[in-house]
Design goal:
By secondary structure, this protein is an alpha+beta fold. The protein folds into three domains: 70-148, Serine Threonine Protein Phosphatase 5, Tetratricopeptide repeat (Alpha Horseshoe), CATH 1.25.40; 160-239, Tetratricopeptide repeat domain (Serine Threonine Protein Phosphatase 5, Tetratricopeptide repeat); 245-376, Acid Proteases (Cathepsin D, subunit A, domain 1, Beta Barrel), CATH 2.40.70.10. The protein is 54% helix and 18% strand. The chain contains 14 helices and ten strands. The chain has a six-stranded mixed beta barrel. The longest helix is centred in the first third of the chain and has 65 residues, at 16-80.
């Protein structure tokens, strides 16, 4: 006889005890399935997390192997041609880019010792030393570059910045001045030179390079502000160009020639040349003027006739046609500058506004009045 309880479950084919047993087994199966699923999900998530790190490590290993293969290829070429200048540059560039800087220095030094100087390799070494803050080593590289090509404005500027970094401000001044003479249109050199003059407590000397900067680049608002501040300083007020004059010449003439007085005592015939960086004097005129220019720093000038040696200094005053300015940078050339006594360049003309009318044969010179000075004028 089947009991009532079993009859109630008869349609499902289980008695009460069986039902209870089935429920327990089902729960166990479901729990196991969930645990298995969680394990699968965990493995998948771990794989996703691990994949980027694994891929990054794999890519790094691959890149290192590729670099080593490049090194070996470069070295194989250099083993056959030890002084291959292009290959040593490629090798050094690859080493520096991979932060193997010391290895780059060592390999470059070996090349210099065996094959002599290589300017591009040398300035790569200079840049690497600067990135490491090794200023003395960078200066050594800069010295080699200047020795190789003293008329390169960039080499002068680089060395000037290193002298400045090391606190050797007089040396920095000299290199910046030479660099500016070699590259009158530079933006960074006059700015750096003006900063050095400030550090040397000679702020008024910054007028000349800043005036040259705004002459070539009239969008230099900061330089104009600096000039306004300098001209408003009573100590520097005497450097403001004064007067208004006109230099007349034959219409259509190839050169503008006028009579200028130097240091208030000696007059001569000068070409007015806005393409020249400095006022330039011939040696005969300089000696008549009584300048002890032989003791001045030596510079190398670029002229229409090529490179020329000169001496760089300061004139007390330059005047032409009633137009006057004080403390003017000048160079005295080792050779005569032709049938004239010199050139009036931007170290003087930069203090003024210059308007050239070749058709009418007139060059008008008027003060470059800064907004600050103009506002203070009655």
């Amino acid at each position: 006889m089947v009991c009532r309880t079993c009859l109630l479950f008869q349609s499902r084919g289980h008695c009460a005890a069986c039902v209870q047993t089935g429920r327990t087994r089902g729960a166990r199966i479901r729990t196991g399935a969930l645990l298995a699923l969680a394990g699968v999900v965990g493995v998948a998530v771990w794989g996703l997390v691990r994949a980027p790190a694994h891929d990054k490590a794999f890519a790094q290993i691959k890149a290192e192997k590729e670099r080593e293969a490049k090194y070996e290829a470069f070295e194989a070429i250099l083993a056959k041609e030890p002084c291959d200048r292009d290959t040593i540059v490629d090798l050094a560039k690859t080493l520096y880019a991979a932060d193997e800087t010391r290895r780059g220095f060592e390999r470059s030094a070996q090349f210099f010792a065996k094959c002599g100087e290589h300017e591009r390799l040398r300035w790569m070494s200079l840049g690497a030393h600067k990135r490491l803050g090794e200023w003395e080593a960078a200066l050594s590289d800069a010295n080699k570059l200047v020795e190789a090509d003293g008329s390169n404005k960039d080499y002068r500027s680089w060395r000037g910045s290193l002298y400045e970094q090391l606190g050797q401000l007089e040396n920095a001044e000299q290199d910046y001045r030479i660099g500016l003479a070699l590259g009158p249109g530079s933006i960074t050199i006059p700015t750096n030179l003006a900063a050095v003059y400030q550090k040397l407590n000679r702020p008024c000397d910054a007028v000349a390079p800043l005036e040259q900067l705004v002459y070539h680049h009239d969008d230099q608002a900061v330089a104009r502000m600096q000039l306004n501040a300098l001209y408003s300083n009573p100590t520097c007020a005497s450097l403001v160009g004064t007067g208004h004059g006109v230099v007349r010449f034959a219409p259509g003439a190839g050169a503008v020639i006028g009579t200028a007085k130097i240091n208030g005592k000696l007059s001569g015939r000068f070409v007015v040349d806005t393409g020249a960086t400095f006022v330039a004097l011939g040696p005969k005129f300089a000696k008549k003027l009584g300048l002890s220019y032989e003791t001045w720093p030596s510079v190398e000038m670029h002229t229409a006739a090529g490179k020329r040696k000169a001496r760089s200094g300061i004139l007390d005053e330059v005047e032409i046609e009633g137009v006057r300015a004080s403390r003017i940078e000048v160079v005295v050339c080792e050779e005569e500058v032709g049938p004239i006594d010199g050139l009036l360049g931007l170290s003087f003309l930069g203090r003024f506004l210059v308007n050239l009318d070749t058709a009418k044969g007139r060059l008008e010179i008027s003060p470059r009045v800064s907004p600050t000075v103009a506002a203070a004028a009655p």
